[in-house]
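Quick entry, no commentary yet.
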Amino acid sequence: MSVTRRLVVRRSGGQVSERGLFAHSRSPRSGCRHRLEDHLRGSAALARAFAERFGAGDVAEYLALVHDVGKGCCAWQNRLIFHAEPTGKPVGIPHKEAGTVLAARTVGRQLAAVVQGHHGGLPDQKKIKDVLAELRGAGVDADRVREATEAVARVVPEILREDRISPPAWLAGLGSPQRQALALDVFTRIVFSCVVDADYLDTEAHFADREPRTGARANMGMLLKRFEQRRLRLLARRTASPVDELRERVYAQALAAATGAPGMYLLHVPTGGAKTIAAGGFALRHAVEHGLGRVVFAVPYISITEQNAEVYRGLLDPAPDSGEQPVVLEHHSSVELDEEDGAGAWARMAAENWDAPVVVTTTVQLFQSLFARKPSVMRKLHRLAGSVIVLDEVQALPDRLLIPILSVLRDLVEHFGASVVLMSATQPSFWSLAQMDGLPRHSMIEDVTGLFEELRRVEYDWRLGRDVTWESIAQEIASEGGEQVLTIVNTTRDSARLHRLLSSTEGEARVTAPVWHLSTRMTAEHRREVIKRVRGELAAGRPVHVVSTSLIEAGVDVDFPRVYRAWAPAEALQQAAGRCNRDGRLERGTVVVFRPVDGGEPKDVSYRMALQASEEFFGPGRSDPDDLDALSCYYEKRWALLGADGRFMGEGIEVLRRDWDFPAVAAEFQMIDSKYAQSVVVVRPGASDAERDLIESDIALLRAPFPSGPEPLRGLQPHMATLPRHEVAEALLVGFAEVVIGDLVVWRGVYDPVRGLEAEAPEDRGVYVL
């Protein structure tokens, strides 16, 4: 990719002389300021390359070309040189308006939001109207816009165009105005992503004194060949299992389906059917067949992200001594980095942009980005165009957001060259909803019902009476003696409570076997260590007990003979059963479903409706959660209980999207309760001096006054846990935590070596999380 080089004139003695307009202060490496014309043209070249994948190269190029035109006025230039540069403080003069005027004139008012929002976030249309109306009159701001435009036009004359640039023709051909409005919402978001990513990359390159970092297009053919060779070696090393033949059949059918046309695919396979490997083979072969450039795997829980990333790294990453760049990028940290202006403005550059052939992320990260408005969160979106997007465990998508999620997925398939794989053992009946009506679906598996019958490996035992309590369940689990037992509960508070009962040195419920704990209050590295240790104990046949939140039940590869699951919606019960007799070595494993009268349940409306529908179809005298016909009826009943108007399934967000009200959409679309969404970096007790130094070094890079790129956040991911915001606020007040950047904090308080960051808040402040 060609990018215009910066112009530097050197005098004798090594002194640097620069003339003209500048976009950024001096680079600490070269000592040169960033010429404005270089920044505009460099950003434009990058944005065009990104957007050409979906036919919007002209639009994105022009928007990037004009995004910083407002920096051309004298007031901004003077503040940069005489205030910002010597003090390290922001310039403090708005610079978005000139580009907004030019964008509205050339590409239309709707897309002018891209320029107006390239720092603070996409605005609503009223904001654009108000800005344009104000700048048509007299006043300081209007004068600055005219002055800046004239000054920049002398060095970048192509910002002034007589003709208009039209969006792709498919937008106008959608027929229904409502359908067109929704598609334009997605189009605006992805063009915005192209522009802000280009802006960030070009800016970062200036301060690092090198060309912008953009990865070469992946050789998917080579990756597919490497994947298959290593898969065969992996299978040869594994202990044989009674279900191996069935798993190989699933893989073969998935690979055969990959030759089909791009579109929406279903991978409906029972738990333990090796979906992860099958999805990887499908995605790579499908990318080879159709020239797609990236594979994005999205899963609901960080624990599966960690596990799947490890699997795919083993199958795809180059040898450590090869000198090649890694293939697989693991991304699950959710840190708020955006500021309108301020001392931490450079922190935005640390945001992830998914410039890797294979990305393993969370569904929260994926969909929060698609419905956000802030640049650092959205800079990666353009990577979805022309990609294979694999959504693992789609049953975990929240009902309250299902309508907008399915609507956007459909647009990515129909207009942005993506193929989407919906993967689950408990596949929801999405095609009964209007958002999927008329969209072709391709099933990878020939006989789903027969496959489920072959893979029945458990029986269910029910404990739903009024006499069931945490103490009674703890006593029952303790009575298992030397057994290997997994217990899955609904909240972090319940998991900590049960773990204390089972591991206490007093009382009847204590077990003699090791009792492990898993929740998102533990760091990613800590959880990974526990899961590895538990797998080792299971493989050796030693007794082991695990108490976990639901993060373990969907996709985590563990195999217990006995599983306890707190009462939850039917799909969660079936997913929990997938951790029981997973390899089919027993005639039947046992899944005990219990409902403690003193247990916690979310107050969410859609969750209550899911429980109500579950009670109708599943339990003693009714169906087991493995019954596909009952599951299909369950989903339809569950959605019917939420109402035909879609009010509890996100239809209100669709109304806001049709109005292009980006701030309101971002406020309404929350995959996780915003009260429980703050990342915390932890230096665990027992960490080596080298580990501590690496963590503190990454923190220092993020706090530095120059862009760091995404590497420090990638390095900190293994050391992050998640807490409710109110707990973080309290910790900051008493000195148990310190701010790093944005809403990321580093923990300086107590970290329990077993349960991590324990909750100490009163019972009525419990938050229902993973």
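second:
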Amino acid sequence: MSTTEIILLNIKEIRRRSIKIWEAIPQSKLDWKPDTEAMTCLEMVRHVLESEYYYHLAIKNKGSLKEFDSPFEKKQLISVTSELEFAETYHQQFLEMISTFSHEDLTCIQIDRSDVGYIRSLGDMLLRIGYHESVHAGQLLQYLRTMGVDRPKVWD
């Protein structure tokens, strides 16, 4: 397996497991949040999907965007299914972009996000994107536990 194939596998596995968690959230609990400062369950799903779209554009830009016009902002939050359907095209474009990178690209291309505190290689950035989604998956598992909702088995 090439480095790019491993990164793609990792991102696909993270998303597969995230979807298991997202689909376990009862419709009646989509607006639940542990405190007034937190995101609701559905806001967190949106945040993950929208962030991936932003990161895709940032990678193409080789750094943070000066302006970000998000297509997600124009869409009403309704359900996990509607969020996934809306984001699917963007997700596939992201995966396709990753598949074009060579090992040299992953190590030599620098993504400048010094505005938020870092400049990293493309490979590092792609792993950070997966980590970001994984952290939110863990948060949602804790939300489900706190709500008393059965949690899906993500360690299959």
